[in-house]
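CORE FACILITY INTAKE
Project code: CF-77B
Contact: R.S. (postdoc)
Sample description: multi-component assembly, two entities in total
Requested service: structural model of the whole complex
Turnaround: standard
Below are the sequence entries exactly as provided by the requester. Do not edit them.
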Amino acid sequence: MTTSNQLVLASVANVPIDDVIAIRIEGHDLAVYNVDGTFYVSDDRCNHGNAKLSEGFLDGDVIECPLHGGCFKVTNGEPCASPVTQPMKMYSVKVEGGEIILTDPSELDVS
Amino acid sequence: MSTANHIVIIGTGIAGVSAAQGAREVDPEVRITLIGEDGYPPYDRTHLSKQMLKPEARLDASSLMEPEWFDQNKIQLESNTRIESINTAAQSLSTSVGETIKYDALVLAMGTRARKLPVSLGQVESTRIHTLRTAEDALRLQGALDDSKRLVIVGAGLIGLEVAAAARARGLKVEVVEAGSRILQRSCDQYTADRIASLHADHGVELHLGQSIESVTESAQGSVSLGLSDGAAIEADLMVVGIGVIPNTELAEAAGVDVDNGVVVDGLGRTSVPNVYAAGDIASLPVPGRHGLTRLETWRHAQDHGRCVGMNAAGQENEYKALASFWSDQYEQRIQGVGLIDDEIATTLIRQYESGAHVSFMLDKNRVLKAVLGIDTAKDVNAMGKLVGRVIPVSDHELKDEHQPLVPIVKKLLKKVS
């Protein structure tokens, strides 16, 4: 689903408030967060261990990795509790017509 | 800021490395020395029974930290130094080459070693018999798996079963002998254990439950034979023994540090001797909701306890409160759990999803959540794990109903108590 070079990631209705879901788009696994109605998107796989952040616990704007307990701010990807030390890759998104849209799909290519 | 000038940590597993990390977080200046004896840079032990048993897996993919991390954090890594003794009066260590290392704070993080079969059983020192605890063990086992067709595993705990899964993936015939009446007795509830047992059976693993080992013999043809208590015998090219671990307390004991199935520590990780701490699976510690002292043997505990104790060695006074938790990967499935299973559990409730995934909730007679466990339900287990140790004022029906998402239920309860 491409709209003028933009990728639709998910419907707003499919991401419960204060929660995170996993999506797969063009071969990339992403985590979509709903923080009080504002949406953020990061890579799903934790940059520290073999775990999916979408299976973690979202507390406010902090996601806790389900395996080792490391935490990231989902607003900017910055690590905020050990053992993680590197920021998560985040993606630019906007909401239009009830859908969460990746505004710059070329971000998917840079890993 | 700490009062210590030199923090020395013995042990380069996740507890030791996390202690170094915690100490450095607290004090940017204190000198930190991390001492190991096996010559390897710190590696992730959880890989040894999983990734490292794949053909051609390399140990450097299992490093705990990037090599430059130690320099960047000014942590002096001595990975080839054996400590012979601790002099707690002089606050110094003697190395095997006669050097003396002075410390202001010492963290014991020497961990555990694999328990072996008793020699009374026969030829238990055979080169075909392996245990799995160290990088050397994993490299040796990896090579042996290449050359073997039949594997027998003694002990149906997490390590034994992870090895079984890895060996089946490589096409070996695998049999597992367990003395208990079921698998995963210490870590899983009956339902979860039954599902894991079926998973292994589906993958062709033959389980022998309630069987103790009567004899171990090595034949001239180069195989090992296990005599079982029911009179049967199992022939194999290779044997892995996964029957638990023994804490490496000898150094501490010789130095006069109190030991009780592990180095005894208080909630801050302090031993009976001033300025000596212990962290990770060597430590016997008070655990909320449990009587006496407990030794915890999970990676997550070693990480969290290590960090907490490292911070305390650098001058802080943090009470250790983290909950016990574990994970295990077998075939494509991931088992996760939070809390400890003990005989106070009165009720176990199961939430079963259509996909086959499930969550087990274990409650005591006062409806306090003791443990939560699941297969491929990491999200539920992590959310519900936040409530371990608390009374759960939610009906059995609501917990079991897979159509009611668990995360919002947990969040509501967390809001209520905070």
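Facility notes:
- The radius of gyration of chain A is 13 Å.
- Residues 92 and 104 of chain A are 7 Å apart (CA to CA).
Invoice: internal transfer
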